[in-house]
Specification:
Layout: H1 9-22, E1 30-35, E2 50-56, H2 59-68, E3 74-77, E4 90-96, H3 107-117, E5 118-129, H4 137-141, H5 150-159, E6 163-170, H6 175-184, H7 199-215, E7 225-231
Parallel strand pairs: 1-2, 1-4, 2-3, 4-5
Antiparallel strand pairs: 5-7, 6-7
Helix pairs in contact: 1-7
């Protein structure tokens, strides 16, 4: 992640999509949480809009975060299910591909903790791997225990007491090739980050850009990723 976050087409496109979808809900100059933020590949951009606090379970990830994103000064080693912050500490919380991890025993518990941390009126943005049955080689490398339908993510947010404002699939165009790839790689472990860094000569990045334009007008019912933005009442 640390090596390719600035060059891999998926990270570039994901940051652009997250910014597009989450920016309307951000309070400029507010306080934000990148929960389970890894090396900062998908959440460090929030520092451009206010004060950013980043947490992760793994100190090595936080070391990389500090090196790659020195403007983010508040880095805390913490489990997303038990965050060491007071209630209503943040205006928004972002959590990307964390609920899928095998260390999360109950995703709703983690989402409920994120809901506790945002102020009333604040938002929680959840992004997880989509298509529940699509177990892939990349999942084994990343220690993913589960994938989510859009309904699963909606339900987790609702059960945590949040009101869903926006729910959509993303990278819908990747579902068929990912399904074929899963059959070919059955039983193997490999990372998607090890190949196609440029996105097939820029093709995947251009398709992702076209999908982002579509998502400005409609929501997609599924995708290789699913996203929910939910507000604390």
């Amino acid at each position: 992640m640390a090596e390719v976050e600035d060059s891999h087409w998926w990270y570039i496109a994901t940051r652009q999509l997250l910014a597009q979808e989450l920016r309307p809900y951000l309070v400029q100059g507010g306080r934000f949480l990148d929960a389970g933020g890894g090396t900062g590949a998908t959440g460090a951009w929030l520092a451009d809009h206010g004060e950013l606090v980043a947490t992760d379970f793994f100190p090595l990830a936080l070391d990389a975060y500090a090196t790659l994103h020195p403007s983010v000064r508040q880095l805390v080693a913490a489990d997303v299910q038990r965050q060491p912050f007071a209630e209503s500490s943040f205006d928004a919380a972002l959590c990307v591909t964390v609920l899928c991890h095998q260390s999360i025993s109950d995703p709703v518990v983690a989402v409920r903790e994120l809901a506790r941390l945002v102020r009333p009126g604040g938002v929680v943005c959840l992004w997880e791997p989509g298509v529940r049955r699509l177990r892939r080689a990349h999942d084994r490398v990343t220690h993913s225990a589960r994938r989510f339908s859009l309904g699963d993510l909606r339900t987790a947010a609702s059960q945590a007491g949040l009101v869903v404002e926006r729910a959509t699939g993303a990278y819908s165009f990747l579902v068929p090739p990912a399904a074929a790839k899963a059959l070919i790689e059955r039983g193997r472990s490999s990372s998607d980050l090890d190949r196609h860094e440029g996105g097939l000569g820029g093709v995947l990045g251009r398709v992702a850009s076209a999908e982002r334009r579509l998502l400005r007008r409609v929501a997609l019912p599924t995708g290789l990723s699913v996203m929910v933005v939910a507000r604390r009442p």
